[in-house]
Amino acid sequence: MDSEALKVYIRQHSHLFWDIREGAKENLSLSAVVETILKYGHISDIRELFEIASMKRISEIFNRQIGGRRVNYHPRTVHFFRQYFERHAS
């Protein structure tokens, strides 16, 4: 994964990271970006993210995020992306 491409992606989708200070946005981890985009992004935003980091990598991050005690995703989002990644990232 190209970290410069991720920084450009974050700048282009800055409005989705409304809860992060402007100066701190470009230093976000891929995990934080995945969570924000899967929660608030449109399908086109998600497709762009798949081009930067592979679907398999994003699926691994998502599964790790939902595997803990605290899950920051809406239950419908969890259900949708579980089904999606099982079908397309396996």
Q: Which key terms come to mind for this protein?
A:
about 90 residues, mainly alpha, 5 helices, globular
How would you characterize this protein structure?
There is one protein chain. The longest helix is centred in the C-terminal third of the chain and has 14 residues, at 75-88. It contains five helices and no strands. It is mainly α and 90 residues long. The protein has one domain (3-88). Helix content is 63%, strand content 0%. The model has no long low-confidence stretch (mean pLDDT 94). It has helices at residues 3-12, 30-40, 43-52, 55-66, 75-88. α4 (55-66) packs antiparallel against α5.
Low-confidence stretches: none
State the end-to-end distance: 19 Å
Category from helices, strands and their pairing: mainly alpha
**What share of the residues lie within helices?**
55-70%
Strand content: under 5%
* Tally of structural domains: 1
Query: Can you give the mean pLDDT?
Result: 94
* Integer-rounded radius of gyration: 13 Å
Oligomer: single chain
Q: Which term fits the overall shape?
A: globular
Tally of helical runs: 5
Largest sheet: none
**Counted beta strands:** 0
Element pattern in H and E: HHHHH
Provide a concise account of the structure shown:
With 90 residues, the chain is mostly helical. Helix content is 63%, strand content 0%.
